[in-house]
Each structure stands twice: as structure tokens, then as C-alpha cells.
Amino acid sequence: MVVHVDEVFRALADPTRRALLDELYREDGQTLSALEAGFGMSRFGVMKHLKQLEEAGLVVTRRRGREKLHFLNPVPIRLVHDRWVSKFSEPWTAALSDIKHRLEKPMEKIFEIYIRTTPERLWEAITDSEIRSKYNFGNRIASDWTPGSRYEQTNPKSDAPIGEGENLELDPPRRLVQTMRALWGEDVKAEGTSRVTWEIEPVGDSCRLTVTHDQLREGANEQLYGGWPMILSGLKTWLETGQLLTTPGSLMYT
Q: Is residue 230, in this structure, part of any structural domain at all?
């Protein structure tokens, strides 16, 4: 199912659904029981609201053992911003509207987006250095893309690598699992290594791309994961239109 802007607006129109998103903003990865406890309505009522948020792509669920966890997915909001806000404002204002998450436990962030393209073309856009630079802050990526191989991220405006990691799993054009170590500043270097998983699933004439960024320490620096909505929005725009977004994800790293 491809999510449309109208579905996002309808989902956001209800104050209870906005409150549910606020609760997931406060603490991501909650069960239905945990969410229900904060609302004065029946379990069924909370389920109905969550279902509408899922249909709009604003909430993503994952099974962890016997529990079903709910995660806030800010990408559709980012797409609405890019379509209806950024063209009326200066590029720097996009940075002010990023959704930020602070948790009191090791963090896992899940981002989901639908892109009208083929799995093969999407895989190429993720692994090709030239294409990657068009939506990933101008950053290039170099690797031989074999299991266990190393990759390095560079930027023309930086004298040293800005990121590195290991390719743990490669199953083109379906799944890529990588470690990630940010190197662009001493503050992010201190965060150590996290993990990023790219999963591609064909859906009709489109693909559902799910990016899971996990193994983040408690209270991790938001620079590590805060840029994903902009990056994925730029990736979608590039693949579907061949154009760059005038938002930070598609601009050069500074």
C-alpha cells in the first residue's frame, strides 16, 4: 500500500492520534497496553486510532517475542514538509522541524517510505557512490560490497572520512545490514558503533523501504539518526523525479 498525503493529513487531523504520536515521540517502541494506559478510552478505541496511523505510515509495528511494539515513523511528515513547506521557506528552516526522540533505554529507530521504483534501481541508489551523494548530504560511499567488507563515507568538503563501517549482510536487491561509526566530529566519534539495516520489499509498481537504525546507546547524540527523514525524502524525490530537494539531506555537508 502506497501512502498518500491525504491519508497523512486525515490521520493528523484527530487530536487523539496526534497525542498518540506525541507519546511515541516521548518514548518510542511501546506496546498497545502501555499506550492504552495513558488514554481514557477502551483498548479497542486506541487500536482503531493506531490502525489509522499505521495506514498513513506514521506508525510502524514490529514483533519482539510475544510483544507488538509501535514506533513513530517521521518520514511521511518529512515528505509533507518537503512538498508544502520547504518551497516557501529558506533551506535552513528544514532543520528546525526535525522530529527528535529521546529515550531512557537503548534506542532503536525505524523509518519507512514507499518509492515508485524497482528493487534493483533502489539498491543501486543505496550502494552507488554518485547517486548516494545526491540525497545524502553530498556524501559518497566506497566499498566492494561483499559480506564482511569495509565501507567508507567521504565528502568533498571534508579532508578526512566522515563515516565508516562493515557490511554485515548483503542480499541484493532485498537486504543490507551495516555497522556505522560516525567520524565527522569528536562528539559523534564518542558514540561508537551502531547498526543500520536497509530492507526493500516490492509493492505493486513501488517498493517499501524500511531503514532500522539500532544498537544506539542510551541518550545517543541525535546527529546519528536525526537526518534519516531528510535523506529518505531526498532519495524518493531523486528516484521518482530525477531532481534534488532544496533541503539539507540533498545539500552539501558543511
A: yes
